């Protein structure tokens, strides 16, 4: 792992830190290429139930990509690099973006690939690519569109405007905006709640929601029904039902 990315584990939670503070946590191509391997390792770690992504320093989650590198890349390179930031979405476990500060360009593309985005009220969001003669190219156009709706997405991306956290929440771009001193508590509360949920059911639900959102309704409903039926074969399904009937807390084991 590079000097700019590090993973810290505490109980069932793993925190991935983006730490390139002198550059506002902008991401180099080398950094981007590390995300798939990091998420694959965390996905396979049975002890990890929830993943949190944070930017170090309190000024930026990530201010985007390292623009100075862009002209060193060929079109074929740029076509491929978008997949690196979608690793958070492909990960089967819940992923929370804990946002404090500037979240721009590729940094916002990483955030919208996560399942949850909790941000301080001082945070600001933008896709400024249009001002550089380009567009978001790592999933930003399509994920933001699905979160915000067409009207707001066009205004947001075609102007390259910067919006505050309260507007980002109202527009559906982020999950919650919280007071500046409440980020740790809000993220910790959500992470602990998710860590207590049955991991197989969470994994299945994430897949059903992500894949079903763009499928025809009948296809999505069939996916839901078959996924529900499959969970009946798991220990956690039976444990959940028996603990409810017995009026005791469940003990989910992820099997």
What would you note in describing this structure?
The protein has 255 residues and is α/β, with parallel strands linked by helices. It has 2 domains: 5-195, Alpha-Beta Complex (2-enoyl-CoA Hydratase, Chain A, domain 1), CATH 3.90.226.10; 198-246, Orthogonal Bundle (Lyase 2-enoyl-coa Hydratase, Chain  A, domain 2), CATH 1.10.12. Helices cover 45% and strands 16% of the residues. The protein is built from 11 helices and 10 strands. The strands form 2 sheets. The chain has a 6-stranded mixed sheet with strand order 1-2-3-5-7-10, sandwiched between helices. Strands 4-6-8-9 form a 4-stranded mixed sheet. Helix 9 (199-212) runs antiparallel to helix 10. The longest helix has 16 residues, at 29-44. The protein is globular. The chain starts with a strand and ends in a 9-residue tail after the last helix.
